[in-house]
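Ticket #4471: structure output looks truncated?

Reporter: J.K.
Steps to reproduce: submitted the chain below (122 residues) through the standard prediction queue, then opened the result file.
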Amino acid sequence: MELKKLDQDLSICKVEDYSLVDLDAEYCFIGKTDEEKSLVCLTENVPPNTIQREDGWKGLRIQGIFDFSLVGILSKLSAILADNAIPIFAVSTYNTDYILTKREHYQKALDVLARCGYKIVD
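Returned output as attached by the reporter:
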């Protein structure tokens, strides 16, 4: 399985609303519940109406488009990283999943996953 490195710096935010979010940006993941409005975006695109933010994230995309019937892809990756004390933040889209780690854990995550047989591509 291939994992694509995302070169950009990412931020995880809580926003007042989505009115200032650039939905046309290269990466923009939004999530809304009865308790919050969340956003994952490029650090350079964090909107001014952000309530809280955490910068310093890097990402990997699981390459390919996966059928909803497939089981355990994200689970296996997250278990490998957890076994190596690497915390993650996962984002799922219709096509695939993204795994974010803090910048200080990113290279270790790449090394661990490569040793476990995952192909890391730029």
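Triage note (M.O.): checked the attachment and the full token line is present. The CA atoms of residues 83 and 112 lie 10 Å apart.
Status: closed, working as intended.
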